[in-house]
Write the structure tokens for this entry.
Amino acid sequence: MVDNKSYHNIVIFVLVMGLILFSFNIYIMRDEAQLLYDSKRFYVLGVIILSLVFILISKENRSEIVNSLVQLSGFNKFLLLMFIISTTVSTLQSNTIYYYSNFSYLVGMMLLCCFLKGNVETDRYKLFQLSAVLLVLLFSSVSLFFLLRLYYNLDTNLHTIFSFVNPRFLNQVQVWLVIPTLYLVILSSIRNRSSIFYFFALILTVSAIIATDARGVSLALLLTILLWAIIDKKWRIEILKVLFYSFIAGYLIKLIFLDPFPAWLFLGESLDLGSIRTGTSGRLQLWKDTLGLVSLWGNGGGYFVCVAEAEGTPRFGHPHNSVLQILVDWGWPALITFLVCGCQLIYNVIVTKSRVQRVLALTLIAGLTYSLVSGVLTMPLSQILFILFLSLYWTSFQDNKGMRKYKIFEYTLVVFSLVAIIFLTMKSVDRYSYYLNNTRVMEQWSSEVHKPEFWLGSNCE
């Protein structure tokens, strides 16, 4: 008989292998933009459906999930209930299969978090190490494309990367991985273990962030690391030293190996050290347009992109702001719960005595801060990393109560899991059919024409 740990290991294995493969993907090229983007969503759907199947067939899994939810504090239970009610009301009033399937995706992500919470604590250190590995792979997606184009005497720019349609989608993965890697650098140094690989991963990440001209992720990470240094007096000097050395070394690697020295050496281009962008990239107008879509109970998950695809305004497939995204799709009650949870996170970073718990909370803060100017909570790989680190953060709190039987809740969990599997399978099959019936390759991707949200383009067909 398969035990609960085995189910967990299978899901973790699939999750980790997907992250590795999609962080350095040289199999699907950028001229297949839709497939490059959508393949990541299919992967996330696969992980969710797999976890839901294991919830269905394992009574032990269901019991652990129910007990984890029951053991939440009374206030957090209230917040969770308010969020569920708000998202349910917004979905029911939309009354179409499209919105039901998006609601099922939200339910699936929440249940995946609960499923991972059961056993993920034993894998925490390995997952921190995975963060460093992924950072190196993400740098490789940038550097290899740069160098290949130079080899063939082609121009380079921030969009010349492997693995991702847009460099911002790469940055949205990086934001979850830097804090755990920084933690490993300092921890290894204190314990007199080699920290070279982790330090190297940080340096390469700084280089990739500068090369892709990523202001949002730079600011989010800088603010989060400075917050950590302010709070953690014991590690403050080490944090600031690693930050300083990583920036200097990363910037030098960018200049020497990515841009501008290679282009100057091989193509005869000028030594342009670059400049800092000061524009808003249309964010202010986008947010203004988004406010016109707000309603009390929201309009259902995916409403924003449907308006954008049908009317051309707003310009993009998501508002580049998690607060506005939740407000438009799920309504004011859901947004209030989100903001309260954010405040709890900041408070716990300050008061917790556990450094691991603080690191995990800071990781979430970094991602959520970047989500205020980007689609961090919308893009597939970034979403699943959010769920992974949220489950790790949840496990850092000790459950003092033993396991109890709550049969009615377990039956409810079965129903939710089964319904979610049906809707998510239908959504996957529909998109697969779209590919079978549409042989045209999207060679030139435009964010204004092909809106990236759940899928890249044709989200509401």
Q: What stands out?
A: The chain is about 70% helix and 0% strand. Residues 303 and 329 are 6 Å apart (CA to CA). The mean pLDDT is 90. Residues 407-437 form the longest helix (31 residues).
